[in-house]
Amino acid sequence: MENALLVGLSRQVVLERQMDVVANNLANISTNGFKAERSMFQEFLNTGAHEDNFPRPDRRVSFVQDRATYHDLSTGSLQQTKNPLDIAIDGPGFLVVQTPQGERFTRDGSLKINAQGQLVNSSGFPVLGTGGPIVIQPTDKELSISPDGRVSVLEGTSIIDSLRGKLRVVSFDRPQTLMKQGGNLFAPTSDQGTPDIKSMLRQGYVEKSNVNSVLEMTRMIDVTRTYTQISAMLQQQSELRKAAIEKLGEVPA
Amino acid sequence: MRALYTAATGMAAQELNVQVISNNIANMRTTGFKKQTAQFQDLIYDHVRRVGAQASDQGTILPVGVDIGGGVKTVGTPRLMTQGTLSPTGNDLDMAVRGEGFFKIQMPDGTFAYTRDGSFTTDNTGRIVTAGGNPVQPTITIPNGATSITVATNGQVSVTISGSTTPTVLGQIGLTRFINKAGLQPQGDNLFVETPASGTPQDGIATADGLGDIMQKTLEQANVEVVTEISDLISAQRAYEMNAKVVSAADQMLQSTANMFR
């Protein structure tokens, strides 16, 4: 008998979570390499007793459940920074970051050099080359990164490029199985990734967040309005029931 | 409601972003200034349904999960260490570095600081000092009666004494580089100091070891590009507004629940 209340509630719980997703997308509108999340919902039919063999089968109560959030993996806009340590990935690839928990993947190409000369990400974790971390010597200058990831420098007073390593770029057959873990990093679950040769690196650019602000604002309004409407509906239901109790429960004098 | 706090992290991040941009704009005429950019990362996620988890007795796994993010954090405000524009000044003691090096400055407490601001003068004893009065290393004293001062690209300072026709070499201004110059810590007055992140200073002389050339009668301008800063400022402002809208929308949702059963 509480169906209307519970169906409405199931929708409100989902909307609240969708709002959290929208809020997180908008909060990360300035995060390099950020990939927006989208919510997916599914119908959840009441599993109670039912008989479907009549010409007009039982109507089962349908609830809503949030099934998943998926990564919107479209490329964010590229911003020119002129910083030789910034690289944007043109293609489906990810850079590989060595964290204490294992290899992680990122689209945030804002690289740094640490005091040991290693190329690192903004959190200080080494960004891996094909042969481990890439190390820059103290006297190196004019660092350049080629589209295929080769990191070369001019060494001391030399005018000939010296190769310091080649950045590892990997792509995934099933990138949706990557799990976001914060810090602009994705963790692998089932798909470990394969070396990517299609992606090109663009030095002096960073990939900005791919959050579409207009879309998110529209979604936010949609969520708020729907949520408020359901609140109103629930209120009407409650008043209906209250009236029913009062009327039906009246003891004739 | 989580969205409220998530949006609050977004507002805090954009506020910091505006601070960094306004400091860049304020220093667009500061000699040797290097602009900063605020950089952000997403916060940890709450994996409500973990991707890859077993979804049924038949052994199927969840192809996508439910990940709810907690917002954004500022990870740093690194400096962009690119070369600023070199502009001629005609002043003998104005120097600019074209390359990686920094001028080494001795501070009153004996420690060293590093700068790209080469607008030097002489103090009452004739030493070449910064605008703040701290001597450039190694210390070079210009004698009384020196008529013309020449600074070679390798930092060698020579003067002609009145009455003489041959120039006298006084010394050589050194340069210092760091493996991670973006890790230097600014301390105002256009000075930077060494940190564990910058690596140890490597002293050397200009034109060698990739330190760069010293250009006399030239100053290095700030590497701030006003057009970029203004457009970044507008985006930051809009992003702040949007996060504020999320706060009020989430509040509206909560309010509708609160008003439901009075």
Automatic annotation (TrEMBL), chain A:
<protein>
    <recommendedName>
        <fullName>Flagellar basal-body rod protein FlgF</fullName>
    </recommendedName>
</protein>
<keyword id="KW-0969">Cilium</keyword>
<comment type="similarity">
    <text>Belongs to the flagella basal body rod proteins family.</text>
</comment>
<dbReference type="InterPro" id="IPR010930">
    <property type="entry name" value="Flg_bb/hook_C_dom"/>
</dbReference>
<keyword id="KW-0282">Flagellum</keyword>
<feature type="domain" description="Flagellar basal-body/hook protein C-terminal">
    <location>
        <begin position="202"/>
        <end position="245"/>
    </location>
</feature>
<dbReference type="Pfam" id="PF00460">
    <property type="entry name" value="Flg_bb_rod"/>
</dbReference>
<feature type="domain" description="Flagellar basal body rod protein N-terminal">
    <location>
        <begin position="5"/>
        <end position="35"/>
    </location>
</feature>
<dbReference type="InterPro" id="IPR012836">
    <property type="entry name" value="FlgF"/>
</dbReference>
<dbReference type="InterPro" id="IPR020013">
    <property type="entry name" value="Flagellar_FlgE/F/G"/>
</dbReference>
<comment type="subunit">
    <text>The basal body constitutes a major portion of the flagellar organelle and consists of five rings (E,L,P,S, and M) mounted on a central rod. The rod consists of about 26 subunits of FlgG in the distal portion, and FlgB, FlgC and FlgF are thought to build up the proximal portion of the rod with about 6 subunits each.</text>
</comment>
<feature type="domain" description="Flagellar hook protein FlgE/F/G-like D1">
    <location>
        <begin position="88"/>
        <end position="153"/>
    </location>
</feature>
<dbReference type="InterPro" id="IPR019776">
    <property type="entry name" value="Flagellar_basal_body_rod_CS"/>
</dbReference>
<dbReference type="Pfam" id="PF22692">
    <property type="entry name" value="LlgE_F_G_D1"/>
</dbReference>
<keyword id="KW-0975">Bacterial flagellum</keyword>
<dbReference type="Pfam" id="PF06429">
    <property type="entry name" value="Flg_bbr_C"/>
</dbReference>
<dbReference type="GO" id="GO:0071978">
    <property type="term" value="P:bacterial-type flagellum-dependent swarming motility"/>
</dbReference>
<dbReference type="GO" id="GO:0030694">
    <property type="term" value="C:bacterial-type flagellum basal body, rod"/>
</dbReference>
<dbReference type="InterPro" id="IPR053967">
    <property type="entry name" value="LlgE_F_G-like_D1"/>
</dbReference>
<dbReference type="InterPro" id="IPR001444">
    <property type="entry name" value="Flag_bb_rod_N"/>
</dbReference>
<keyword id="KW-0966">Cell projection</keyword>
<dbReference type="InterPro" id="IPR037925">
    <property type="entry name" value="FlgE/F/G-like"/>
</dbReference>
From TrEMBL, chain B:
<keyword id="KW-0282">Flagellum</keyword>
<dbReference type="Pfam" id="PF00460">
    <property type="entry name" value="Flg_bb_rod"/>
</dbReference>
<dbReference type="InterPro" id="IPR012834">
    <property type="entry name" value="FlgG_G_neg"/>
</dbReference>
<keyword id="KW-0975">Bacterial flagellum</keyword>
<dbReference type="InterPro" id="IPR001444">
    <property type="entry name" value="Flag_bb_rod_N"/>
</dbReference>
<dbReference type="GO" id="GO:0009426">
    <property type="term" value="C:bacterial-type flagellum basal body, distal rod"/>
</dbReference>
<keyword id="KW-0966">Cell projection</keyword>
<comment type="subunit">
    <text>The basal body constitutes a major portion of the flagellar organelle and consists of four rings (L,P,S, and M) mounted on a central rod. The rod consists of about 26 subunits of FlgG in the distal portion, and FlgB, FlgC and FlgF are thought to build up the proximal portion of the rod with about 6 subunits each.</text>
</comment>
<feature type="domain" description="Flagellar basal body rod protein N-terminal">
    <location>
        <begin position="4"/>
        <end position="34"/>
    </location>
</feature>
<feature type="domain" description="Flagellar hook protein FlgE/F/G-like D1">
    <location>
        <begin position="96"/>
        <end position="159"/>
    </location>
</feature>
<dbReference type="InterPro" id="IPR010930">
    <property type="entry name" value="Flg_bb/hook_C_dom"/>
</dbReference>
<protein>
    <recommendedName>
        <fullName>Flagellar basal-body rod protein FlgG</fullName>
    </recommendedName>
</protein>
<dbReference type="Pfam" id="PF06429">
    <property type="entry name" value="Flg_bbr_C"/>
</dbReference>
<feature type="domain" description="Flagellar basal-body/hook protein C-terminal">
    <location>
        <begin position="215"/>
        <end position="260"/>
    </location>
</feature>
<dbReference type="InterPro" id="IPR037925">
    <property type="entry name" value="FlgE/F/G-like"/>
</dbReference>
<dbReference type="InterPro" id="IPR019776">
    <property type="entry name" value="Flagellar_basal_body_rod_CS"/>
</dbReference>
<dbReference type="InterPro" id="IPR020013">
    <property type="entry name" value="Flagellar_FlgE/F/G"/>
</dbReference>
<keyword id="KW-0969">Cilium</keyword>
<dbReference type="GO" id="GO:0071978">
    <property type="term" value="P:bacterial-type flagellum-dependent swarming motility"/>
</dbReference>
<comment type="similarity">
    <text>Belongs to the flagella basal body rod proteins family.</text>
</comment>
<dbReference type="Pfam" id="PF22692">
    <property type="entry name" value="LlgE_F_G_D1"/>
</dbReference>
<dbReference type="InterPro" id="IPR053967">
    <property type="entry name" value="LlgE_F_G-like_D1"/>
</dbReference>
